[in-house]
Write a structure and sequence with these properties.
Layout lengths: L7 H13 L5 H8 L3 H13 L12 H8 L16 H7 L7 H11 L6 H15 L12 E6 L4 E4 L6 E11 L4 E7 L4 H15 L5 E3 L7 E3 L6 E2 L1 H10 L2 E2 L11 H15 L10 H17 L1 E2 L4 E2 H9 L15 E6 L5 E4 L2 E4 L8 E6 L3 E6 L2 E7 L7 E2 L7 H11 L1 H15 L1 H13 L3 H15 L4 H11 L7 H13 L29
Parallel strand pairs: 1-5, 5-8, 13-17
Antiparallel strand pairs: 1-3, 2-3, 3-4, 6-7, 9-10, 11-14, 12-13, 14-15, 15-16
Helix pairs in contact: 1-2, 1-3, 2-3, 10-11, 13-14, 14-15, 14-16, 15-16, 15-17, 17-18
Length: 523
C-alpha cells in the first residue's frame, strides 16, 4: 500500500531545515518533523531533481508545489499513433460483458502498432479523472421519497415441501434525513408494489410532495423522462395521496441516489447479518429485517453525530404533509370494452352496464369486495365482486325492455309456462297440446320452456293450418321436440303434404319395384 503524502506544511519545514542548517542530517530533520528519515531523503531528492530550494519562489502556491514534486503520470500520444476515442470506450464499458481488455484487443486489431494494454488503461484513467465531475444537490426536507428494490433477495423455505423461493426487499428513503423503510415481499407484482409504497408512507407518518420510483413495468407502462405513462392503479394511488410521481430515467441510478444508498445500507447492515438464518415465511423474514433496520436507524452517523431517526424527527417529520383521513383501499384499474350483451369482463367474470353503453370503453376499478365501473370519469354502477369463473352478474335495470321480459319468463317457470301455453293456444289447440307435451316430457318444466318458445317462433313463419297439422302428427311420437317440428315443416315446405284424410303418396326412388314385378304381361 502506497504511503500517504506529507502535508505541504511539513514539506516546507523539511526544505527550510535542510537549507538553513546544512549540518543537520536527514535523521535529525526526521526527528524534528516526526517523520521517517527515508521520507526526508525522498523529498529532498525530488526537490533537487527539479531544482527547487529554500526559500521557495515567489507566488509558489501549495497546489503548484504539489504539482512540481508529484507530477501526474502521463504518456503523451506519439505522433504516429492516432488519439484514442475515449467517449466511445466509456460508452462501450457500460454494456454487459464489455471489459477494457476486450476493447484493447479490438483496438490492436485496427492499430497493430498502437498502445500497450497498460498505456491504454492509464490514458483512459487520466481522461476519466478529468471527465468525472459530480454535483451534490441539496435536498429539501419533506420534498421527496425515493423507492427501489434491492438486488439481494431473501431465501424463503416452505416448511411443508422444502421448496425454496425468493423474498424481494422493498426500500423507501427520505433524502434529507436518510431515513428509510424496508420490507420483504413475496414478489414484485402490482399489489405488493402499491402496498409497499402505502406502508412506507404510513411508517413515515406523512406524505412528501414527490415520489421517485424506478422504471419498473409494474408502476410505469411507458418510460419517458418528460411525460411518463403510469400504470392506472399507480396513478390512482398518486391521486389518493396527492403526490407527484417522477420516475427516474432508464439506467440512471443518479436520479435516485438516496434510494441506492439506502439499498446499500440495507444490503450491508440488514440482509448480510441475516444471511445464515433460515426463514419459513415472508412474514418471519419481514419481522427480522425490520428489527435489524431499526438498529441501523438508531445508530449515530459519524459525519453528523446524529442517528437517522433523530434527524428524521428533527427536520423531516414536521415537513411532511399529513396522511389522508381515510385509509387507502387498493383497487386494480383496467380499461375494458362493453360487449354487445352490455357486460364487461374482469377476472373471467362478467358484470353488466346499462345497455346504452354497449361497445363503449369502460374503466374497471376492482377492489377486494366490490367492482366499480366508470364511463368518462363518472361512476356507472357498483357490483359485488364475484369469484365465479364464466359467471354473469346482471342488474335488471341494465337490460332493454324486451330482454328483461324474456328474462322474467325464463326465470319464473310458473309464469313462464303459463305464458308459453297461452301463446301456443293462440296458434291452435293442437299446437298448445304439443307444447304441453314438450314440457311434460322434460324432467323440469323450465327445460321445456325454451322448446315451447321455439314452437311459437316457428308459428310466425308458417301458416296456422300447417302448424296445427304438423303438431297433431308429431304428438303421436315418443319424443316430441322443437327440432322434429322444424324438420317436418321444412320438408313440407319443399314438398307440400297431401290433403288431410288422404294417404301420403310413396316417394319415388330406385329401390321400389313397380306393378310389373308382381304381374305377368298376359294377366
Amino acid at each position: 500500500m502506497a504511503q500517504p503524502r506529507l502535508s505541504v506544511r511539513k514539506i516546507r519545514e523539511v526544505l527550510r531545515l535542510h537549507s538553513e542548517n546544512l549540518s543537520l542530517s536527514a535523521r535529525a530533520i526526521a526527528r524534528a518533523c516526526r517523520i521517517s528519515p527515508t521520507t526526508v531523503r525522498e523529498y529532498l531528492d525530488r526537490a533537487k531533481a527539479i531544482g527547487l530550494s529554500w526559500p521557495l519562489p515567489a507566488g509558489c502556491s501549495e497546489e503548484e508545489l504539489h504539482r512540481r514534486l508529484f507530477p501526474e503520470p502521463h504518456t503523451p500520444p506519439s505522433a504516429d499513433r492516432p488519439p484514442l476515442d475515449f467517449p466511445y470506450i466509456h460508452q462501450e464499458l457500460t454494456k454487459p460483458g464489455v471489459t477494457r481488455l476486450l476493447l484493447w484487443q479490438e483496438y490492436r486489431q485496427c492499430q497493430p502498432d498502437g498502445y500497450s494494454y497498460s498505456q491504454f488503461c492509464e490514458l483512459y484513467r487520466v481522461w476519466l479523472a478529468g471527465e468525472k465531475i459530480f454535483m451534490r444537490i441539496p435536498r429539501q426536507a419533506g420534498e421527496e421519497m425515493e423507492v427501489d428494490y434491492a438486488g439481494t433477495t431473501v431465501k424463503i423455505v416452505d416448511p411443508q415441501t422444502g421448496e425454496i423461493t425468493k423474498g424481494y426487499v422493498f426500500v423507501a428513503a427520505l433524502p434529507a434525513s436518510e431515513f428509510f423503510y424496508v420490507e420483504v415481499q413475496p414478489d414484485c407484482t402490482l399489489p405488493h408494489w402499491i402496498g409497499g409504497n402505502v406502508r412506507a408512507l404510513q411508517f413515515f407518518g406523512g406524505v412528501p410532495r414527490i415520489l421517485i420510483p424506478d422504471n419498473l413495468k409494474t408502476g410505469v407502462k411507458r418510460s419517458n423522462f418528460y411525460e411518463p405513462d403510469l400504470n392506472p392503479t399507480f396513478q390512482y394511488f398518486a391521486e389518493w395521496f396527492q403526490i407527484a410521481v417522477l420516475p427516474a430515467r432508464v439506467r440512471k441510478p443518479q436520479d435516485k441516489p438516496h434510494a441506492e444508498s439506502a439499498v446499500q445500507q440495507v444490503t450491508r447492515w440488514v440482509l448480510a447479518p441475516l444471511r445464515n438464518r433460515t426463514f419459513f415465511s415472508v412474514e418471519e423474514a419481514n419481522r427480522a429485517a425490520q428489527a435489524k433496520a431499526e438498529e441501523v436507524l438508531d445508530k449515530k452517523m459519524k459525519h453528523l453525530g446524529k442517528s437517522r431517526r433523530e434527524l428524521f424527527e428533527e427536520i423531516e417529520r414536521p415537513a411532511l404533509r399529513p396522511l389522508p383521513e381515510r385509509p387507502f383501499v387498493y383497487v386494480e384499474i383496467k380499461l375494458a370494452k362493453a360487449h354487445l350483451d352490455y357486460h364487461v369482463e374482469y377476472d373471467h367474470h362478467y358484470y353488466s352496464v346499462p345497455h346504452t353503453l354497449r361497445g363503449k370503453p369502460i374503466e374497471v376499478r376492482a377492489g377486494e369486495h366490490v367492482i366499480q365501473l366508470f364511463f368518462r370519469q363518472g361512476l356507472v354502477v357498483t357490483h359485488v365482486r364475484s369469484r365465479v369463473r364464466g359467471g354473469y352478474t346482471t342488474l335488471p335495470e341494465h337490460m332493454p325492455p324486451k330482454h328483461r321480459f324474456v328474462r322474467d319468463v325464463l326465470r319464473n317457470h310458473r309464469g313462464g309456462t303459463a305464458w308459453v301455453l297461452a301463446q301456443a293456444q293462440q296458434v291452435g289447440p293442437r299446437t298448445a297440446e304439443y307444447v304441453q307435451l314438450l314440457m311434460d316430457d322434460r324432467e323440469y318444466p323450465e327445460q321445456g320452456i325454451r322448446g315451447g318458445l321455439g314452437v311459437i317462433a316457428l308459428a310466425r313463419k308458417h301458416p296456422r293450418e300447417t302448424m296445427e297439422r304438423a303438431c297433431a302428427l308429431l304428438a303421436k311420437t315418443d319424443r316430441p321436440s322443437c327440432q322434429a317440428l322444424r324438420t317436418l315443416l321444412e320438408r313440407w315446405k319443399r314438398t307440400p303434404p297431401p290433403a288431410e284424410g288422404c294417404p301420403a303418396p310413396l316417394p319415388e326412388h330406385a329401390n321400389l319395384r313397380g306393378q310389373s314385378s308382381f304381374f305377368s304381361k298376359g294377366e
